Automatic annotation (TrEMBL):
Transmembrane segments: none annotated. This is Alkene reductase. GO terms for molecular function: FMN binding; oxidoreductase activity, acting on the CH-CH group of donors, NAD or NADP as acceptor. It comes from the Bacteria. InterPro entries: Aldolase_TIM (IPR013785), OxRdtase_FMN_N (IPR001155), Oye-like (IPR045247). Gene3D superfamilies: Aldolase class I (3.20.20.70).
């Protein structure tokens, strides 16, 4: 995992990626990233690939307080310092493009608007974090076909802004029960038009977003994150294997920078999809404990994955690749200051070594 990885435009110092992690520290009104964000990402630039926290692509895409945006040029401008800082350390950074769909609340959206989704299906029995604390979910309203087209365009515009301020690429967030997966899953997409009704229909939005972003910035700058069979956020995918095989078969010829597969359901998606995906595969697992670097190394050794994404361990071990290379002890996952606030719990986790770079491996 600690050796360099090259494929197409990707030239990574090692096969470790920092998984995308929302930290809720952007200016809540402007959506401009935190003044500490450049330091946070620079400290972690020893990762072969940094994937930013989810970044909203339009005003209705925002999921909660302190989430940054790439919906306007002013928001994009705030990321320039981040990309410069990471590049000064020799790192590579992709921006994660996010639309939360129904996973938000009128208090988080402009003018108290209702959240949007493929269909008007509410989350029951769980609450969502807002600036006024945890509140019940509201029933979202279904997007019109015209709005779907505009949303696809918003992903492409956000990608253009990201590349314009120096990101090496973008990762489209198709995982964890947010808008793209709400279209894919059969319990959240009850549409009977071209965007629902069949596997092809339910995959149409994901494909249109990928194709629009590819047309805007080029396939070799685009990754897609998926979490097949992930029941998080009340999704139910009764046919995950069939659906995601169809998605990957449709995506494979496009030549994307990577496919990022998050495993957390019964379906062993990483191993199954690897056989159909000819490009770079980034793998991440999701469970109560942080995913293990050793398990990641096994995935690489067994040929199931090319790059391993780690989340929580990167939060508390900014120099994680160097620690792994040196056999230095690892700090445990974070217990406080995960979302919101300033530098505390964000940029004050110390490095174990003076030199965060991984020693060269022959
Ligand atoms: C605080 C926190 C914020 C997260 N935010 C995002 C996000 O913005 N986008 C995303 O795709 N996944 C997000 N995730 C999921 C992580 O990318 C990752 O899949 C998860 O933490 C499992 O990996 P780990 O065990 O290495 O931490 C988040 C996870 C955590 C802990």
């Amino acid at each position: 995992m600690l050796r360099p990885y090259r494929a197409g435009r990707l030239e990574l110092a090692n096969r470790l990626a920092m998984a995308p992690m929302t930290r809720g520290r952007a200016d809540d009104v402007t959506g401009v990233p935190s003044p500490h964000a450049a330091t946070y990402y620079r400290q972690r630039a020893g990762a072969g690939l940094l994937i930013t926290e989810g970044v909203y692509v339009n005003a209705l895409a925002k999921g909660g307080p302190g989430i940054p945006g790439l919906a306007t040029d002013a928001q994009a401008g705030g990321w320039r310092e981040v990309t410069d800082a990471v590049h000064a350390e020799g790192g590579t950074i992709f921006a994660q493009l996010w639309h939360v769909g129904r996973m938000t609340h009128p208090l988080t959206l402009p003018d108290g608007e209702l959240p949007v989704a493929p269909s008007a299906v509410a989350i029951e029995g769980s609450r969502i974090f807002t600036r006024d604390g945890l509140l019940d979910h509201v029933t979202p309203r279904a997007l019109t076909v015209g709005e779907i087209t505009r949303t696809v365009g918003d992903f492409a515009s956000a990608a253009r802004r990201a590349i314009g301020v120096g990101f090496d690429g973008v990762e489209i967030h198709g995982a964890n029960g947010y808008l793209i997966q709400q279209f894919i899953a059969d319990n959240t997409n009850l549409r009977t038009d071209a965007y629902g009704g069949s596997v092809t229909g339910r995959l149409r939005f994901a494909m249109e977003v990928v194709e629009a972003v590819v047309a805007e910035v080029g396939a070799d700058r685009v990754g897609l994150r998926i979490s097949p069979d992930n029941a998080e956020n009340q999704l139910a995918e009764t046919d995950a294997r069939t659906t995601y095989r169809a998605l990957v078969d449709a995506l494979d010829p496009l030549g994307l920078a990577y496919l990022h597969v998050l495993r957390n359901g019964a379906y062993a998606a990483i191993a199954d999809l690897r056989t159909r995906w000819s490009g770079t595969l980034v793998a991440n697992t999701n469970g109560p404990a942080p995913s293990s670097p050793d398990a990641g190394a096994r995935l690489v050794r067994d040929g199931h994955a090319d790059v391993i994404a780690l989340g929580r361990l990167f939060m508390t071990n900014p120099d994680l690749p160097a620690r792994l290379a040196n056999g230095a002890p690892l700090a445990g996952p974070p217990t406080e200051n995960v979302y919101g606030g300033g530098a505390e719990g964000y940029t004050d986790y110390p490095a174990a070594t003076d030199d965060p770079r991984v020693p060269a491996v022959a």
